[in-house]
């Protein structure tokens, strides 16, 4: 009789609920997934994608070293598409940091003069370490490590495997953008917030400030600090911005800061939208880029405000992180690597694992040229839907839980 216990064994569907069997299946799936992604990564390191985005930071540092402008004349002259290798799009401090990859400080410039691909290995390793540290720290502090160990006998390494098997993470490691660094800063901000102390709130504010100077969109989280009356956090966002600017100013000089507002204002729609997930770009096809940018940003700010006033601390912060990414006018698949943090926070909040798995799979789509004109469904449509699904899950009804921590409480009072 299938499904009954025989001779000390368990058979049939009941076998699926046996902890030892479940652990074996999860380990096998994790090994296959991570092994496949590792092969993909190795393959991409031989292609043009390897370090494609990192080349912009590396090039900006080289321009600073030579006393040249870090922004091109085309960026200052008028509208430009944010799609070109070596094109630097960010505030000046990151270019100052990129000086570390050039003489006289960098061993990589000695190993391969004039070639960014030697330095990108160090950048990729840094991103992988930030990802690993962030997952382990948040899993421990939010109770995910204990919950996974009780359910499967495995620790946070199951989450680590899922993260390294997440296609946007693989893309980020290959292209060498800044989103894993931003993930670490946003994760640090959450760890500071969840403790409910003034010191933690200040650390969170500084982390968001540094993130906003690396790439502008995390600055939206300042609104969350203000609406949740976390005045110390809001003040230290400004401290983080000012401190990062002042530390790097001797290396960048003042002119890039004078140029950057023009560079930001001239940013136009991507010329090639095949890989673009931004809601702004979707809407721009109907009403134009500038109106779409204003509408999406306005709606995003309203959503952050609603979440800050109505949801728990954990979920309102999750909404703020998601909105900050979705309002970015240039949003590509590998940007979604930051969504590792919302996944962790949604798991900690007790959101349905089945829906989180659906979002994970939706964001695992890639370009399928065999589909022809319909390739946008897998390449753009499904990943966009997956990111929006996380937003819906974060804004959904709260599940009542015992032994609530400060991060589970409804927001409405931050530290004084």
Distance between the termini: 65 Å
User: What ranges have pLDDT less than 50 throughout 5 or more consecutive residues?
Assistant: 1-8, 400-405, 410-416
Query: Nearest-angstrom radius of gyration?
Result: 22 Å
Strand content: under 5%
The portion of residues assigned to helices is 55-70%
Taken in chain order, the helices and strands follow as: EEHHHHHHHHHHHHHHHHHHHH
| Shape estimate | globular
User: How does the major sheet shape up?
Assistant: 2 strands, antiparallel
Overall mean pLDDT score? 85
Count up the domains.
2
Query: How would you write the strand order of the largest sheet?
Result: 1-2
Q: Helical region count?
A: 20
Description:
The chain is an all-alpha fold and 416 residues long. The chain folds into two domains: 38 residues; 364 residues, no CATH class. The chain has 20 helices and two strands. A two-stranded antiparallel ribbon has the order 1-2. Strand 1 and strand 2 form a beta hairpin. The longest helix is centred in the first third of the chain and has 26 residues. The radius of gyration is 22 Å and the shape is globular. It starts with a strand and ends in a 21-residue tail after the last helix. The N terminus and C terminus are likely disordered.
